[in-house]
Amino acid sequence: MMVKTEFTPLKHGFHFSNNFINTIFKTPFGKIESRGRCGGMAFASLDYYYAKLPVPTHESKDFPNKMVPPDGSILGDYISKRSIHSLLTFSSYKFPKWTTTSDEVVFKISRKTKLVEFPKLKKSIDKGNPVVLGLISGSKISDVTKNHQVVAYGYAEPSQGKIIIFIYDSNSPNREVILESMEGTPDFKASNGRLWRGFFVQNYTYRKPAYIDLLIDCITENETSQSSSSVIKVTNRGQFSSNLKYLELVSQDNSNLDHTKKVLKPGETIMLNLQNL
3-12, 16-25, 87-96: which range is least confident on average? Predict the structure, then answer.
């Protein structure tokens, strides 16, 4: 049996990788930094999903640093705030607790994952609600930053004791990543090459998305009983170039775009002619 929500990484996940660098504080000798905002990207992607708003269409190439939206930008600061929110949830205490829990006795973390957390995941997804997962990798307190946060939007149990979970991983944008574990196997293997000791379902609270890049207006003309011609006005009101290929109204081969215009600069507008038969 396989169950999936309407969430998909290509439609609801960000189109750039989680290459954030966070400055914790500065000293006369240099900066103390950490890497990644996986929790912020997971929480923010669900914000857009539940708001029924398209996720920003920016790719790494569209940012000044060719990686991620910079600090000081609306999108960069929004993801940063959501990252902090993701670590202030009650369930976040499990990151240090589970990291330092030994698996010497019957794979303790794996058993908790399969017997307690997986049923929570199933219950939520059966209701159509994706969840944020805290993935555990490290085994000592200094490894706590090696843990990770993703969005789980589906699961499958193809055979007795086998678990498959479909996730959006901000380290692997635009594609489905699969977590898989067999009965008697202590770890969860991810299709993008990572190995995880287990996971827990995180508490998530919706926040209204703070940033939208594309504004879309539809004007229908020449309506008849058999057909109608629609003009779609698309304006980039964001801070970076936007990519029209991620819009649902654009055909997969971009055949209904005006010639080769597939990227909009900030403040730029394009009119798309769509024929509805």
Answer: 16-25
Q: Under 8 Å CB-to-CB from 178, ≥6 apart: which residues? A: 164, 165, 166, 167, 190, 191
Give the separation between CA 56 and CA 213, rounded to whole angstroms.
Answer: 6
Predicted structure pTM score: 0.89
The three-class DSSP label of residue 65 is coil
The confidence score (pLDDT) of residue 267 equals 96
**Least confident segment among 49-58, 141-150, 192-201, 213-222:** 213-222
Half-sphere exposure of 229 (CA within 13 A, CB side): 5
Reference 43, options 150, 119, 200, 194; nearest CA is: 150
- Kindly report the number of other CB atoms within 10 A of residue 7's CB atom: 23
Sequence spans of domains, the chain: 2-201, 214-276
Alpha-helical (H) ranges within 52-202 are: 74-87, 94-99, 108-112, 118-126
Q: Assign 208 to helix, strand or coil.
A: coil
Helix axes 38-51, 74-87, angle to 10 degrees: 100
Tens-digit pLDDT profile for residues 206-215? 999 999 999 9
Measured at the CA of 222, the angle between CA 220 and CA 226, to 5 degrees, comes to 100
Smallest CA-to-CA distance from 12 within 175, 255, 200 is with: 175
Q: How large is the average pLDDT for residues 17-30?
A: 71
What mean pLDDT is predicted for residues 72-94? 96
